[in-house]
Amino acid sequence: MKDKTGPAHYRIANIEVSDRPHIGRWTAGFFCFTAIVLSAYQAWNTRYTMNADGVSYLDMGDAYLRGDWDMAINAYWSPFYSWLLGLSMLIFKPSAYWEYPLVHLVNFFIYLCTLACFHFFLMQWIRYYQGRPRNSSESGYAEYPEWVLIAFGYSLFIWSSLILITVSVATPDMCVAAFVFLASGILLRIRTGSINRFTFIMLGVVLGFSYLTKAIMFPLSFIFLFISFFLVGDFRKAAPRTLMALIAFLVIAAPFIAALSVSKGRLTYGDSGKLNYAWYVNSVTQWVHWQGEPHGSGFPEHPVRKIFSKPDTYEFGTPRGGTYPAWYDPSYWHEGIQVHFDLRKQLSVLNTHIKEYSDVLFKEQYVLLIGCLILYYMSGRKWLCIKDFAEQWLLYMPAFTLMAIYALVHVERRFLGAFNVLLWIGIFSGAKIPRSNISKSFSSYIVVFMAMAMMIGAVYSPLSGAYNLIKTNKIITPSSELLEVVNALDRMGVGRGDKIAVIGWTINIHWARLAGVQIVADIPLEEKNTFLDSDSSVKSQALAAFLKTGAKGIVIFQPSDDADLSEAWKRLGNTDFYIYKLIE
Hints:
The chain is an alpha+beta fold. It has helices at 21-45, 52-66, 69-72, 79-92, 96-131, 146-165, 173-191, 197-213, 217-232, 235-264, 272-280, 325-328, 330-333, 343-363, 366-379, 384-390, 393-407, 417-429, 437-472, 480-491, 510-515, 528-533, 536-547; strands at residues 9-12, 15-18, 305-308, 313-315, 499-505, 518-524, 553-557, 569-571, 577-581. It is globular and about 85 Å long.
């Protein structure tokens, strides 16, 4: 209802709520606080975990700090995230006990920056969204109060960032989200009339750093530039401003592209897309030890060296470095690989990824789908709803483009984070609700319900985990097995800088990073049982092949109840890791 003496009011559940700005500020504050608490819990709960990709980023950060440019320039892993990790290692110089918790602290810091970038985007979107009803052509449609839009936006962000991306895994995807929100917010500023040169230059700078964070952002940056050009509406103004954005983008991106191209001897902005296409579409051997199979996949220029057969044994200690050189720079070991189009396999991959998108968008976020459908129905615009949705192209076009690119190659949920937010906000923005107290109140009910459903999905897991910790009185400690392996290796004279071989690589290389050893040879997981089931003469030959690599010992993970190892294998503490000393 209207209050002639004050700002507009309306009722929800018989509670009068005001459009006053402080309501929006309190709502934003509540959701920011919730987002920080949930992300802090997630980072804390997983602070002693690490993934193989994270080890490679840590190794690359070390290479940049040493000034080892030949090793640092990597065509598979983008540099920006490794810079952040390397800088944190330089500042804090953590022990093995604290190294992985420090990585999660960096992830938490990145999340806070992403939260700030999202808030910038959200404020620009609210300004754009609330400005539409003031246009004469849309004056008959309702304007949501700011707090409702804030609740919807923040709940979507919290769900997408903590369920899809997470701060638990050491990857650059949260950094990508930050730059995507910044770039999208700048586009909305342009859409609402801010077309000064500085705005476009900042767009180019943000896109440049987004490319340094992940290679997929190189082609996607041109989509953002394309959108910015058409948002201006005047070709004579748009052309020079978009050109300035492009120049700013190239100033940031070109030095790394040049260094990468010189390193590879060919023009390239990154090989991650090419390798993933080969692995997931062309069925090339994943992810290490490619020897040119299958037929037609190319000829490896410098593959890992096969030093024994049955069980297949590989050596890769030089010329690349890192904790596990075979995974530190896959682009080096796969140089010479050729991708080709196979319609049958491409359709199969596409079908799998469409199902994955369907699960994320329609099964896990079905409340958003139902809510938006109701809002579109309430608009009463029938087929004009398609036009209303199409008008939000600046929001969902980057999301659709990214999803289309990934659908052709490989999809993981963490890739979708920020783009999931853009997509749903774009869909939501297209619903035009007629201006009336009833429709405005009912539609606000729906939006608040959508926000509540997303928040329930985001907080259920951490609340359940916290409850179990309190109930069991269990304190999260470093993996005793992990540190015990590191300490046991040290007691056996295997320390930093030593070379190690492994049997059964299962992307469990985080112990090697903390121990400071380098894995220079291995028998792959699929060949592990072949080794264990072989007779003593075959095992002796395999061990002799390992000895020639300069490895000081061989480490195997073998649960004690299944162990079939000779007495020469020494157990590392009370863990399920064993070592066979090659050099005393």
